[in-house]
Design a protein that fits this description.
The structure is a single chain. The chain has 227 residues and is an alpha+beta fold. 30% of the residues lie in helices and 27% in strands. Helix 3 runs parallel beside helix 4. The chain is globular. It starts with 9 loop residues before the first helix and ends with a helix.
Length: 227
């Protein structure tokens, strides 16, 4: 079992929530290598998970629109929505999505009045070449349980219902209610087993999942702004 080697300081969380302007890919890679040691892959969840949140973003040029939507896990009904808009200067580069997207969705998450028990992020967590994808980045920055749910595979190979890379299980494969394959991985403060079980409840039904609801809200905010 992986054990984090250090605690998260407020200054470190701020570096993830608001990366420095002009950050190079080399510097970003070094940050990922450093902070992956902090990722907790054991569950720090309440006995009964009641409220989950989906985080997602939309873009128009250098304008980013982030949304957070909380959902009651028992009823799968949305309860609260928060959204933010800000500029982004970090390019879209595979493997470094977090440095472009994390600041805006973290900003939306921090506007929620009621903190959820766990966050869902549209992207990978531990199932990342440097074991620090978007879900890990967001989870460590928020210091909260976070699960990555991605629509495509970034690394590793599928073995049954598991995603493996270099001899390590880095995630799981789940089929959504629409029949599409989803790749589930640990973000922070949740075990892979719990991540899969919670994801099944949210993504294997006909109801709109938390990430889809956040996606709709982010697009709504973007489309409401006159170009």
């Amino acid at each position: 079992m992986h054990t984090p080697s250090t605690k998260v300081r407020h200054a470190d969380r701020e570096r993830l929530a608001n990366p420095a302007v002009g950050l190079t890919l080399r510097e970003a890679s070094q940050l990922q290598a450093r902070f992956r040691r902090i990722v907790e892959r054991r569950s720090c969840l309440p006995k009964r998970v009641r409220l989950v949140a989906g985080l997602d973003s939309a873009y128009r040029g250098n304008q980013a629109f982030g949304a957070a939507v909380t959902v009651n896990l028992e009823t799968m009904k949305p309860e609260e929505t928060a959204a933010v808009q800000r500029e982004t200067d970090f390019p879209y580069v595979p493997g470094f999505l977090a440095f472009r997207e994390a600041p805006i969705i973290i900003g939306a998450a921090m506007k929620l009045k009621n903190q959820p028990d766990v966050y869902f992020v549209d992207g990978h967590g531990w199932a990342h070449p440097r074991r620090f994808g978007l879900a890990c980045h967001v989870g460590v920055a928020l210091n909260a349980p976070t699960i990555g749910v991605a629509k495509s595979r970034l690394c590793g190979t599928v073995s049954g219902n598991r995603l493996r890379d270099r001899g390590e299980t880095i995630g799981a494969v789940l089929r959504s209610g629409s029949g599409k394959l989803l790749y589930v991985s640990v973000g922070h403060k949740v075990s892979l087993r719990d991540a899969v079980n919670i994801a099944k409840r949210c993504f294997s039904t006909e109801s709109r999942d938390p990430i889809s609801l956040a996606h709709i809200e982010a697009n709504r905010l973007r489309d409401a702004i006159t170009p």
